[in-house]
Amino acid sequence: MMTVEKYLQKQQLNKKLYHGRIMAILAVSLFLIIGVFWWLKLIGITMAGEAFCGMDEHIHDGECTRVELICSEEHSHTDTCYMEVYSCGLYEHIHTASCYSDLQADLETEADWEASLAGVRFGTSDLSNVVAVAKSQLGYRESTLNFKIDSSGNRNGYSRYGEWYGNPYGSWSTMFTAFCLRYAGINNLPISAGAEAMRLKWQENGFYQTPDVYTPLAGDVVFLDKNSNGTVDATAILTAFGDAEITVIEGDLDGRVAESVYSADDPVIHGYGTVRPAANLRFLRNTFALRALAADGREVIAKTADYDQSLFVETNCFVVYTQSGSDYYAFDGNGNAVLITIDNEGNITSDVADPDTILWTFTYSSANSYLIRNISSGRYMHAYPNNGTGVTTGGAYPSTLIESGGGVQIRSNSEYARLDTASDSFVMTQNQSIAAVYQLGVTSRCTVWLDGTNGGLMSLGGSLNQSYNLLGGDVITLPSEWQSPEKYAYRLQGWYDVKNSRYYLPGEEVTVTENLVFYADWVAATYDIGQFNAQTVNTVSTNEFITTRVFDYGSLFNLLSARAGVNVNSSGHTETWQMVTNGTVPYQNRDTLNYIFVDYDGGGDITYPNNRDNANISGGVYAGLYSDELADVLFGTDNAFDPITGEGIIGKTYVGTGDYLLQYSNDPNSEYYGYYYYNSSLNAAS
User: Fold this and answer.
1) Which residue, 390, 424, 445, sits at the end of a domain?
2) More reliable by pLDDT, 686 or 185
3) Domain-embedded: residue 17
């Protein structure tokens, strides 16, 4: 039986436990309240009285109103003669989410986002530069304090990439991608704020490929259809590609820049954007370039060459092959053994669908070691001790070349590759005595630029300046159509090889053996740009006693007095134009006319050459230069360019004879009295 004393002690203990529980609950509640308060602060929703809209909350009540007479007539007033007005002097306002946005918070300038790039190490590869920029932005988050609410009630935070693009509160997935491209130095690819809009531009210009025909490289753009409606709604930068999955860096992924992994066959992957056009495009071989043919009618991929370290230069590509009996097997980008044929002249051919799969580049690393990379897959030749297999890797690991038996063995640490004819593949071995001894087939790698802007000429902006990576001996068919510049409507008349001073008609074939630049020869699509009819009524035509011939002089016309110094590579091309003051010009190898049209945009382009004749800076024909020969070049009709035969002076098009070109208004009351007016179906100007 419990005593009274023990009962009282137990009651006292229960009371203490009760109060303890109450205090614990109060403490937890206070902690939660404080936590919620700071969470609201963090996401930009502050408590009442801390709104950033600059207005106080106020709802009109009876004390705010008074009734005033608004009628000025003398009669018996009714209700319509009075109006209720607010006398409080305040606007009625209830805070919404937008009121709690601090539009001055987290703002960035160009200096701020460039500081985030300070640690990026830029190299010569466009693709690696894009990846480096994307990785430097990992972890960035859009502002939670500075935001706007759109008409659908969606909250859109301020972002660095929107600020850079000019749309600070827009969805910034693709603006992030555009940011990475531009800061990586990629300026020849179109950008947009919207994913689908950018995809369409890339598709139009030949930079977009679907997953079933293209093997992407790290640095390419991934176009994503996350809503599964057939339309691209997000973009990302590819950082790694494997057989099973891809790794990307995305912007605006839950409001941040983050890394994501997708299955390689995930239907969300709509397609890829090729950052280096034609570096790995299979379609290029079919529609743009053809290779020289061997005796068996197949395309020559490369020619055999004796092993020599001097072969390993940037412009060369290699077939790496070994012999088994009477058969030859090439090492492809995934470690497969591809059967090839070698004829008596050393021409290497194969039935492989894409020759790029058996072509490799060798980049010097150190001490006879090279990064041996496959053009098609982007993987590196590097054996690993992986259960007897694994001879390529996605990582940039070098391998060492060892001369052996008139050829070369390729070693990765203590691992080699040997030919396994049973599986038609190369497999890893640590036994050098059974490792494959390779021979080499060599072909050169050339870059061809088709430049519709003619070196960035001001009036030809908006056309394509596009590069193609080809192999020596490839035969290209020059396009018959090209994207017209934006300023006017143009028609393509031909292509000018700037490096060799040769002119080609559209559709002509060129065998490529070196880096080349072709300028587009543009003429106006139409010369009928309208008539100023109001000032030509009842005027006298002069066509019966004056013959007016109309010519169109394009920028290539200046080649008669100019020479270009040309630097061409896979990242770009530069031309420095100079006046030829004596001797002959490269084009047509004729004496220079020492004359050139001058364009005052200061861009150093073909119409504003360095070291031009000072007597000609006015842009007109200087009297001391004018001669019968120059007059014939300028105004003769028999030497105008013929777009069918390709003969004549390029850049000079004879439009025809104009009618009603010189007209006189004899009405003394007209503001055009005594004014000669140029008016024709060929052109018009006042």
Assistant:
1) 445
2) 185
3) no
Mean pLDDT of 124-134: 82
Phi and psi at residue 555, in whole multiples of 5°?
-65, -30
Asked whether residue 36 is domain-assigned, the answer is no
Say what percent of the chain tops pLDDT 90: 31
Residue 325, pLDDT above cutoff 70:
yes
What residues contact 135, with CB distance under 8 A and at least 6 apart?
A: 239, 249
Do residues 324 and 417 share a domain? yes
- SS3 at position 601: coil
Beta bridge partners of 349: 341
Contact 207, 200 (CB under 8 A): no
Torsion of CA 589, 593, 594, 597, to 10 degrees: -110
Is the pLDDT at 642 greater than 50? The verdict is yes
Residue 165 placed within a domain: yes
Cβ-based neighbour number of residue 213 at 10 Å? 12
Angle of CA points 136, 140, 142, to nearest 5°: 145
485 and 378 belong to one structural domain: no
The pLDDT value given to residue 589 = 86
Q: Do residues 229 and 378 share a domain?
A: no
Q: What share of the chain is helix, strand, coil (3-state, %, to 5)?
A: 20, 30, 50
Both 622 and 483 in one domain: the answer is yes
- Encoding tokens for residue 34? 């404080």
Question: Do 479 and 623 have their domain in common?
Answer: yes
Q: How far apart are CA 321 and CA 301, in angstroms?
A: 13
Closest CA to 595 of 571, 621, 569, 575: 621
Both tokens of 421, joined, read 């004819």
Average pLDDT over residues 155-167: 91
pTM check: above 0.85? no
pLDDT confidence bin for 336, thresholds 50/70/90: very high
DSSP for 344-392?
TT-EEEE--S-GGGG-EEEEEEETTEEEEEETTT--EE----BTTB--E
For the chain, what percent of residues have pLDDT higher than 70?
73
> CA-to-CA distance for 555 and 573, rounded, in angstroms?
18
CA–CA distance, 610 with 594 (Å, rounded to integer): 13
How big is the CA angle at 644 (ends 638 and 649), to the nearest 5 degrees?
A: 40
Same domain, 185 and 311: no
How far is the C-alpha of 325 from the C-alpha of 334, rounded, in Å? Answer: 23
In a domain, 19, yes or no: no
For residue 163, the enclosing domain spans 110-273
The first and second tokens of residue 55, run together, are 């207005």
In this prediction, residues 34-49 reach a mean pLDDT of 44
Token pair for residue 267? Answer: 């239907």
**How many domains does the structure of the chain reveal?**
3
